[in-house]
Amino acid sequence: MSITSSSKATHAPSPLALGALLAAALAMGLSPVLVRLADVGPFASAFWRVALALPILWVWMQAEERGRGTARSRPFGRGTVLAGLFFAGDLFFWHLAIMNTTIANATFFATMAPLFVVLASWLVLRRRVAGPVLIGLAFCLAGGAALIGQSLDIAPQRLVGDGFGIATAVFFGFYFLAIEHARKTTGAARVTFESSLITAAILLVVAFVMEPHILPRSSWGLAVLVALAWFSHAGGQGLLAFALGHLPATFSSLVIFLEAVFAAAFGWLIAGEALTLVQTAGGLLILFGIWLARPKAPRTAVERQLPVPH
């Protein structure tokens, strides 16, 4: 059975949803640095990233459902369970990529997620992908290559790590589609909490099997993990789940490219790293691509009848 596009795609995006999407990109864009600063291995940091966020997400879920004053949604729906599984795969390969290749390489290959969202929407879900989304994706891909391409270091010893980055993009792409599906019937807080619970359970087993130690070794290490959990996961994934209740996944996935833009901006503002003309142009291409792909409100009957000025 074919699945048609959600009605979200036919309405102009709300400023609140767009703002949540931008804030999610900002929060998620800091995760590579925090993973590198953690004093535990990649699988342990992936587990703590999700586990330490659960109390905040639980409080948010309780507040959201009390505020709505409605009966709670059916727990652990299919979309939520799939989102938890896909995000576990995403974090598994993302943290491996960060530790086995350069941050620039890991970020570049992980930003291919929108490409897999579009392909899955078209080939698996049989959705028609709008032309502006495809054009916007092309601009974002070109911009991402320009922004990060100069820092890429393709070498034989990093090919495995680069492959982990591509696997990250595949899992994150399917995560977008699963969250979008779950949000049709379930609130953002419950989707984020329940999917995170599944992800944490999977990553706990992985960490026990793969890591020599799981607990942070210092107060600094604990602080890094708390920042990773509260800011990058609770903030980033929670805002993303909220936005996906109002915006189509094909458009929302383009936010991944903004992680590279924010990373470059932070490097310029905080670390004094100069931005080249090519990198600046790449950032502008990404912004232009996202603007092109934005959902637009349908023209009214009156607008369609207006004469075209000569």
From TrEMBL:
<feature type="transmembrane region" description="Helical">
    <location>
        <begin position="191"/>
        <end position="210"/>
    </location>
</feature>
<dbReference type="GO" id="GO:0016020">
    <property type="term" value="C:membrane"/>
</dbReference>
<dbReference type="InterPro" id="IPR037185">
    <property type="entry name" value="EmrE-like"/>
</dbReference>
<keyword id="KW-0472">Membrane</keyword>
<feature type="transmembrane region" description="Helical">
    <location>
        <begin position="132"/>
        <end position="152"/>
    </location>
</feature>
<protein>
    <submittedName>
        <fullName>EamA family transporter</fullName>
    </submittedName>
</protein>
<feature type="domain" description="EamA">
    <location>
        <begin position="19"/>
        <end position="143"/>
    </location>
</feature>
<keyword id="KW-0812">Transmembrane</keyword>
<feature type="transmembrane region" description="Helical">
    <location>
        <begin position="222"/>
        <end position="244"/>
    </location>
</feature>
<feature type="transmembrane region" description="Helical">
    <location>
        <begin position="75"/>
        <end position="97"/>
    </location>
</feature>
<dbReference type="Pfam" id="PF00892">
    <property type="entry name" value="EamA"/>
</dbReference>
<feature type="transmembrane region" description="Helical">
    <location>
        <begin position="103"/>
        <end position="125"/>
    </location>
</feature>
<keyword id="KW-1133">Transmembrane helix</keyword>
<dbReference type="InterPro" id="IPR000620">
    <property type="entry name" value="EamA_dom"/>
</dbReference>
<feature type="transmembrane region" description="Helical">
    <location>
        <begin position="251"/>
        <end position="271"/>
    </location>
</feature>
<feature type="domain" description="EamA">
    <location>
        <begin position="161"/>
        <end position="292"/>
    </location>
</feature>
<feature type="transmembrane region" description="Helical">
    <location>
        <begin position="47"/>
        <end position="63"/>
    </location>
</feature>
<feature type="transmembrane region" description="Helical">
    <location>
        <begin position="277"/>
        <end position="294"/>
    </location>
</feature>
<feature type="transmembrane region" description="Helical">
    <location>
        <begin position="158"/>
        <end position="179"/>
    </location>
</feature>
